[in-house]
Design brief:
heterotetramer, A: 220 residues, alpha/beta, Glutaconate Coenzyme A-transferase, ten-stranded mixed beta sheet, 5 helices, 27% strand, B: 233 residues, eight-stranded mixed beta sheet, three-stranded antiparallel beta sheet, 11 strands, 18% helix, globular
Chain lengths: 220, 233, 220, 233
């Protein structure tokens, strides 16, 4: 595998988390983002199962079955946290009170469509809260590998899988690159360390706009 | 005061029968009505339609009803972590309707609050929107979703009093409050059942008017699905 | 004035309150009903400003500005009471969780329409929660005087004032009579003590069905 | 943690101007944002649209803004008990939109929760329904009502913490929680402002995410509108 590993992707995305943001993190790579957010800014993590102000995992022996995140992992809460029901949780999401949503994807298309809930006939886990999140969030970043296990691009001109939402993704961070979704399709913004523009071009099936200068990601 | 206490799980579930629609509170295995599920899995009822965010795991939660093939249809938002579920779904034995989690919560709340339908942006342009009215509000597309219509709602609360007032704990709250009063009969199991007057009227999550039957659960296993910890350093 | 006084009307309506009823009482005569409900049955009073399990007025010196009923009167609460927000309060009402609604009216028509919120050009206090209540409640009893101050009937073939709800009133209790609203218009059910069927007929402008036998109200 | 505390009422109200739409919590005089109302009545702003269940009394609550003719339009469910209000309304100086109380609460909640519109049976067949879409659901007629769109929401809570978590007291709760997060900027005055971590996370009525600014009110008169008592016997 070239470019970043999952933690590297999380580390790069953490730089998009700004002071005073309420952030919803999806399962998988997005969960790792919490580990890399600067500690000189104020951020609160929301989990759609009904908690705001999530903290780290509990110490062994202190797990509470009644305090979990959306990935069903045992968690803790920080000072100022709150618990609430599912309807109010999605009021936060649908009502645009959450500032940033970070989630994984199987495919993203050049117009910002996202597919991450179903592979017909093969895998049907369901959308969970993802359809509500992508339909309402104004600031959505997708965290994923640039290609699937078969080496095929996950950045497409059009999603081949059933989509989760239309024209909603604004930014994609992969093991190879940071890309914005613009009117020109994908616009290459940054390269992962050691990855060439050519490698990114070859791994991107959707329309790719490449500016004259593409800087390398700064991870620290 | 109007008392809602029933003696036991048998009395709490009186009237359940095959082909009914049930709602179950809980997210993953957190806040599920364990006692009701256990009892329902011992009954000779089937062809159930179950509304629940998740479908339990193979040997716990709604997995128990799936194992006994009591469920005809599941309405959920996320059904991973259950191999038997996947098998029944892919073989066509089980009908599955997957809906967005926020839509699921709001369809419960709409039933509770007497709203027949509402517009939400969730699912617009996806499979979920097929056959549903789509409508533009202020330049954004929404789809029309309807209130659930269920026979029984099975709820797990932390503390409750004899008039049915409820307090939930942590993220075990989840869909439970939204499902109270959303079905014809709301059945609540609590960890601690208290006399009326024991709970602060200002700190009640769900007033007793939304509850028909309440009882103290015999046993709560409260299984943890993903035990994640950090080292003491 | 012939027939019952306000307390008499309230006393008669109290007999309609059954065991295990949740009841919403409007301002005016309906509020008095609470004083006459049998004390061997279980009843809870809901007030749409956000309280269930209302008790009597507080003792002097114990009034709390933060604990009032929908008439803005200081109240107390009983064991098992709860406070909640306005949205949840109307979930109880709209969702048909309240069993009985008792409210006052300026006019009721023979098809069950009710007018009680506005006299154009003269008095515009607003509908408060009345429109929500009458639109959703399955069991609505109107408490009012049979005629207005000018001696005109308030039971009409059609409301002359702007209506609060359509075809919703099931029963009317006045100073003169108990009437059901049926497909035949108003059906006389009971006479107030000392009031003749003729007096009721003369005071009722809407279509009035009078059965062969009209018993006198039993108030105790 | 994201702190929402502001130093004083001036900072809390920064950005208010003429022709804006404001929401005010409260039922009658109970749970109204007294400090904000007092301060707004001292400012040179007018042509306001005010969403509030009631309009205060002549010399308290929104009556203060009415006296100074700062309000162009009131959106309320009940406006009795205010002579100056009645005078302005009947003379045509004041535009008044009366809506059902449950509809008012839900239009706030819809704004908070991101629903553009909802169907309710309240008001069908009445003046309130004029110009609104009517629709049959399961044989019952409903009308389509829309979410409010306000610039500032002024809220009164009992206790709050520095991240904006709120707890209300008794029936002073009323519309306050439903209005939090329903306007572009939600300004909360509390009787007691506490450090984060002081409130039980399980017993918070409104999480701080719905609040932009919070401050401790200087003075709460908490006037009683109808002082009713019973004799000690």
């Amino acid at each position: 595998m070239i470019g970043l590993d999952k933690n590297g992707i999380a580390k790069r995305i953490a730089k998009e988390v700004k002071d005073r943001y309420y952030v919803n993190l999806g399962i998988g790579i997005p969960t790792l983002v919490a580990n890399y957010v600067r500690n000189d800014i104020s951020v609160e993590f929301q989990s759609e199962n009904g908690v705001l102000g999530m903290g780290p995992f509990p110490f062994e022996g202190e797990e509470d079955a009644d305090i979990i995140n959306a990935g069903k992992q045992t968690i803790t809460t920080l000072d100022g946290a709150s618990f609430f029901d599912s309807a109010l949780s999605f009021s936060m999401i649908r009502g645009k009170h959450v500032d940033l949503t970070i989630l994984g994807a199987m495919e993203v298309s050049q117009n910002g469509d996202i597919a991450n809930w179903k592979i017909p006939g093969k895998m049907v886990k369901g959308m969970g809260g993802a359809m509500d999140l992508v339909a309402s969030a104004e600031n959505i970043i997708v965290a994923m590998m640039h290609t699937n296990r078969a080496g095929e691009s996950k950045l497409l001109s059009k999603c081949s899988l059933p989509i989760t939402g239309v024209q909603c993704v604004k930014k994609v961070v992969t093991n190879l690159a940071v890309l914005d979704v613009t009117q020109n399709g994908f616009t290459l913004v940054e390269r992962a360390p050691g990855v060439s523009v050519d490698q990114i071009r070859q791994s991107t099936a959707g329309e790719l706009h490449i500016p004259a200068h593409v800087p390398e990601m700064q991870l620290d | 005061m109007i008392k809602k206490t029933v003696a036991n799980i048998q009395e709490a579930c009186e009237g359940v029968s095959s082909s009914m629609t049930f709602m179950f509170g809980g997210f993953g295995l957190s806040g599920i009505p364990e006692n009701a599920i256990g009892y329902l899995s011992s009954l000779d009822i089937s062809d159930l339609t179950c509304i629940s965010n998740n479908a339990g795991v193979d040997d716990f939660g709604l997995g128990l009803l799936l194992q006994r093939k009591q469920i005809k249809k599941m309405i959920s938002s996320y059904v991973g972590e259950n191999a038997e579920f996947e098998r029944q779904m892919l073989s066509g034995e089980l009908d599955v309707e997957l809906i967005p989690q926020g839509t699921l919560a709001e369809r419960c709340r709409a039933a509770q609050a007497g709203f027949p339908a509402f517009y939400t942006p969730a699912g617009y342009g996806t499979e979920v929107a097929i056959g549903k009215e789509a409508r533009d509000f202020d330049g954004k597309m929404h789809i029309l979703e309807s209130a659930f219509n269920a026979d029984f709602g099975f709820i797990k609360a932390w503390k409750g009093d004899e008039v049915g007032n409820l307090i939930f704990k942590g993220t075990a709250r989840n869909f439970n409050p939204n499902m109270c009063g959303a079905a014809k009969i709301t059945v609540v199991e609590v960890e601690e059942l208290l006399p009326a007057g024991s709970l602060d009227p200002n700190q009640i999550h769900i007033p007793g008017i939304f509850v028909q039957r309440i009882f103290q659960g015999e046993k709560f296993e409260k299984r943890i699905e993903q035990r994640t910890t950090r080292p003491r350093s």
